[in-house]
Write a structure and sequence with these properties.
Layout (H helix, E strand, L loop, with lengths): L9 H18 L12 H10 L5 H14 L3 H5 L3 H8 L5 H19 L7 H4 L7 H11 L9 H9 L8 H9 L7 H14 L27 H5 L12
Helix pairs in contact: 1-11, 2-8, 5-6, 9-11
């Protein structure tokens, strides 16, 4: 645990944050967006659908959706009942259907049916907030962005990178610690770590590769054997 009587300097914090980032990249070299997509529109739709559900659930639904609705115009003219039935299992399907129809309409009317590759444009779209916009920018357009979902926010605070609760403030605080070129991969590895190791209720501290630099070490299971049982993925031989 950190020593309150010896506060961390900004330089030390930056160095520690970058050590954590580099170590997580080594642990999760396969980290990527876990939503299946082939183009920016598909990713945007999948991300809107992912609210309050899992990426696994969304990936079960999107093949049929993407086959039926291939353009922004298709969503704009979608039959509400049909689309609701297709995405019902993702939860909040009426609100999501409303967002997708409005999203298609705005894309057609304001952007010629194309997904705008700018944050300030994306956040004006129905059902699209800053988190969704950064996902699309980073994974569909290769434009660096930090995606602050519940996992990222939780780990940023556990790592002592920030005390902020507001996602936008977390984004800016963490963005000051890590080079911009790494923001998208940072988002992936932190989210991977949150889903697989640093769980909300019982983090696997004893099996954590960044435990040496984490001020929250000890909040979870520290015994290596017991902690390993909490992991939600299997290590490759090279990582074990």
């Amino acid at each position: 645990m950190s020593d309150p009587s010896n506060p961390e300097t900004s330089v030390a914090l930056t160095r520690r944050a970058r050590k954590i980032y580099r170590t997580l990249v080594e642990r999760y070299p396969q980290a990527k967006c876990e939503l299946d997509f082939e183009n920016p529109l598909q990713l945007l739709v999948a991300t809107v659908m992912s609210a309050q559900t899992t990426d696994v659930r969304v990936n079960l639904v999107t093949p049929a959706v993407f086959s039926r609705y291939r353009s922004a115009a298709d969503y704009a003219s979608a039959d509400r009942s049909e689309l609701e039935a297709m995405i019902q299992s993702t939860g909040f399907y009426r609100a999501k259907t409303d967002s997708l129809i409005k999203l298609g309409t705005v894309l057609v009317e304001r952007f010629g049916g194309e997904i705008p590759p700018r944050l300030e444009d994306l956040v004006t779209l129905p059902g699209v907030g800053r988190k969704t916009a950064n996902v699309v920018l980073g994974d569909a357009f290769g434009i660096p962005g930090i995606t602050v979902d519940t996992h990222f926010g939780r780990l940023a605070r556990r790592f002592g990178w920030t005390k902020e609760e507001d996602p936008v403030k977390v984004e800016h605080a963490v963005g000051a610690l890590i080079p911009k070129k790494d923001w998208t991969m940072l988002s992936h590895v932190v989210i991977f770590h949150g889903r697989r190791t640093c769980h909300a209720r019982r983090p696997a501290c004893g099996a954590c590769p960044v435990a040496s630099w984490c001020p929250s070490y000890g909040d979870g299971e520290t015994d290596p054997v017991k902690a390993a049982l909490l992991l939600k993925y299997e290590l490759t031989p090279a990582q074990s």
